[in-house]
Amino acid sequence: MSDRDAAFESYFAARSGAMRSTAFLLCGDWHRAEDLVQQTFTKIYLAWHRIQRQEAMDNYTRQTLVRTFLSERRRGWFRHEAVGFAPIDEVAPPAVLQEERLLLLEALVKVPPRQRAVLVLRYWEDQSVEQTAALLDCSTGNVKSQAARGLATLRGLLEEEKVR
Question: What is the rounded distance in angstroms from the CA atom of residue 45 to the CA atom of residue 12?
Fold first, then answer.
């Protein structure tokens, strides 16, 4: 195994779980999340020899993941299948009520893709406005407006669930 392959393998082992969680929040389906992560790391591997700054890999990987997700949503490949909400594979922390977490994740899947990407990057990945703008290749104002709209949509969806 070459040094390049060994370095990629260790990076994949260290970061694939976190990227899978991010992908799940973007698409709302664990199987689809696995596909997104696989596509992302395939793209990363193909560019591995060109990457100079290894310390910037997480941002590059996140950017590739989000762009892959948004690209597929634009093409409409997955719109033909109604993706149901799959149960969470991981155990939730005891402080978080499982039912509330499921409601939040179900609502998040209904938020438009671009707004969802901003919400996931800002509030799950804890990226700054500037970092999120760089990852999505848009202005900071766009990130702020998408976050505000996404939060409003999410709140509205959660309010609808309370009424039911």
Answer: 9
The residue behind tokens 């039911």 is: 164
pLDDT recorded at residue 83: 52
CB distance 150 to 111 below 8 Å: yes
b/e per residue, 3-26, with b = 16+ CB within 10 A? eeeeebeebeeebbeebbbbbbbb
pTM here is: 0.67
> Cα torsion for 108, 70, 86, 22, to the nearest 10°?
-80
Residue with tokens 């409003």: 152
Calpha distance 117→100 (Å, rounded): 21
Task: Give the tens place of pLDDT for each residue, 77-114.
Answer: 554 444 555 555 555 555 556 778 888 888 999 999 99
Provide the sign of the torsion angle of the four alpha carbons 52, 53, 58, 59, taken in this order. Answer: negative
Q: How far, in Å, CA of 135 to CA of 152, rounded?
A: 22
Q: pLDDT of 121-152, one tens digit each?
A: 999 889 999 999 998 999 999 999 999 999 99
